[in-house]
Hints:
Number of helices: 4
Strand order of the largest sheet: 1-2-3-4-6-5
Distance between the termini: 73 Å
Order of helices and strands: HHEEEEHEEH
Shape: globular
Structural class: alpha+beta
Helix content: 40-55%
Radius of gyration: 19 Å
Largest sheet: 6 strands, antiparallel
Strand content: 25-35%
Amino acid sequence: MASYQETLSSNELDDAVIMETTNINHVEVIENVIDTLEQDDSAMVSHTPEGGYLWKFKYGSVEVFVQLTGKTDEDTITVWSIVLKLPAKDEPKLMRQLLEMNCSSTLEASFGIIDNQVVVISTRTLEELSPAEVSRLITIVATIADDNDEALQAEFGN
């Protein structure tokens, strides 16, 4: 039996990768990831009039939100989870600790403040976003939030 190996030129290989990433159904990928992480059938989704999606699910002791603004390359996926409500005790110490953690332990995510709440957040455009990257973004935010919320609340919560 004869065997052969197909070789693709660099441009053909680039085109194949682009085709593979442009045919990804990000909604399906996000829902599959949430399915593997969510607890107690807690996942909920809502649709925006502009064609976006917002999911919420429970992971450990936190709620995780995933927002997809649309389905074009310019649209974004944002994943966040609230870990502490503000105001907090000793906010200068809290801010220093969060900045240090941003540099050492948050990977593609970071701590930030939205509406007087400390969050773990990550956002990215959909251009060339692979299913593995979607899974990683959601998992990183959920894990970092769950690993840190109780300690932050115990030390800095009111």
